[in-house]
Amino acid sequence: MRLLLPTTSDRVDLHQVYAHRGDRPWVRANMVTSLDGSAVKDGRSGGLGGPADKEVFGVLRSLCDAVLVGAGTARAEGYRAPRAKEADAERRRAAGQRPAPVLVLVTRRLDLDPASALFAGDGAERTIVVTSGSSDRAARDRLAEIADLVVAGDDQVDVAAALDELAGRGLTRVLCEGGPSLLGDVAAAGQLDELCLTISPQLVGGDGPRVAHGPDLDVDLSPASLLEADGVLLARYVRR
Question: How far apart are CA 236 and CA 17, in angstroms?
């Protein structure tokens, strides 16, 4: 792996490249796209990833307080609650972070299996489920037995209110892993501070979604760093 921006180097410390600057709440998104603009291959974003993408994925998770993801993406990509890793323990202790990131699932329908790996087990923090006031009350009560419930918004999930709630719990470094609809909502709410974008050197065709989907956006980002590994580009953009 080599660094192309802001300087060039064949020696790369990923934790330094992706280190958070400052102490204010920060929402960072991590997405992947093909050369022709698709966020999925064969229906999953994982089909576009590779070794370099997985390495950066692990580093971003090691640096965040919470992993924010839509419930549909979590099911499609086979998510499970993050667990503490010994390799990250000292770094997270020094930063005043919990042993592992908290998984935050965003869902209006609450169609989640309480027995799934999405919910806390050994070494995992208790999962947070964010929903709206219009969600089914019985489903909320059922999930509240195994997760922390956050009701943000009335008919739709209010992403800004949800992020404020997370910050109030000390979860200020949020890593949004999509999908495209959730990233679109985060950006539309003016909450996106940084986008980490893996550009896979593939043409996949089809009608897959772009990395952001939903309302029209006007978000101006500036390039902060660029890495390359085996033809894969790993770009980082920050809000101007």
Answer: 9
